[in-house]
Amino acid sequence: MSRKQKQPENNTPDHSPEVKPVVPWRIVYSRQAQKDAQKLAAAGLKSKAKALLEVLAADPFTNPPQFEKLLGDLSGCYSRRINIQHRLVYEVFPAQHTIHVLRMWTHYE
């Protein structure tokens, strides 16, 4: 007769990957962006801008909503549309986990 071997008890801790909480990005506003925020509120676009800022705080590279990498004077910056006329322009600093919002109004003025 064969003898059954007793299986050792598994007393080792679970080594599954640890789920880390998502730390929101810090958002810093330029003086111009602060002025633009007042214009957005007066134009009834505050809720749309706020929704975009919440997306940015979670992950500035989330797609959708679509973002564009800018060229020229704003090289290194990104933009997302608030509506057909207005856009949110921001710069990302990964080392500091910070987003610098430059503009939140039209780029046609």
Automatic annotation (TrEMBL):
Protein name: Endoribonuclease YoeB
Region (Disordered): 1-20
A Pfam family: YoeB_toxin
Domain of life: Bacteria
One biological process term in Gene Ontology: negative regulation of DNA-templated transcription
Stored SUPFAM superfamilies: RelE-like
Classification via InterPro entries: RelE/ParE_toxin (IPR007712), RelE/ParE_toxin_dom_sf (IPR035093), YoeB_toxin (IPR009614)
Similarity section: Belongs to the YoeB family.
Keywords for this protein: Endonuclease, Hydrolase, Nuclease, Toxin-antitoxin system
Keyword Hydrolase assigned: yes
PANTHER family according to UniProt: TOXIN YOEB
Keyword Hydrolase: yes
Coiled coil: none
A GO MF label: hydrolase activity
Organism placement in taxonomy: Bacteria, Bacillati, Actinomycetota, Actinomycetes, Actinomycetales
Organism: Mobiluncus mulieris
